[in-house]
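Internal tracking record. Fields below are filled automatically when a chain is submitted to the structure queue. Please do not edit lines marked as system-generated. If the sequence contains nonstandard residues, flag them in the REMARKS field before resubmitting.
Queue: standard
Priority: normal
Entity type: single polypeptide chain
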Amino acid sequence: MTRPGRARVALLLTVVTAALLTACTGTDADPSRADATPTTRPTSSPTPTPSWPPSPTASPTPSTAAEIAEAVDKWYTYGGETAVVSLIEEARNAESDRPREAFELVVLDFDGLTDALGTARLMGPIPDPRTQTAWAAAIEHLDGAVREVLASVPKDGRTIQSPQETGQMLRGWSTFDEGIKSLKAAQALLNRRFGLKPSVDPWEAGV
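SYSTEM-GENERATED OUTPUT FOLLOWS
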């Protein structure tokens, strides 16, 4: 049984659309393949990701630069670093299964990313408004991307996506890219503003 908060979202995907390849790789689409659509088949039924209640903010709210720096350091030390690194690693894992070539057979499994998003929410906000804005945007975009891509999977037993479903999947991966940009921005702000960074760069570590 799937435990609460865990979405089992693996799906089987055969890529056959030139439009998809253009969106994923930035190469020019072949007009002769413009009407092709990717094959998708879910290996299990996706479970809606629950809404996580925000963690209570410590009181009083830090206001001076020194207080903010101290609060951010505590956030990072007591779970924040783990949440950031985990989200980066799982986002990279999900992206590694992204279809990039025609007739490529891949299995997209967002299970780990869904867990990492849940952990990130449970950590509560980063006590620095600028960094929190980027962090919140990363969570929102990555969560939205997972939902969008899963929603594009045919629900009636078909193995070929309709043009509308293909477009929805492409929008999902575009949202995913926005999430990656925000995640990188949040990590850069933690490093530049507060000198906080993991011992091993999760963007460079092997997946």
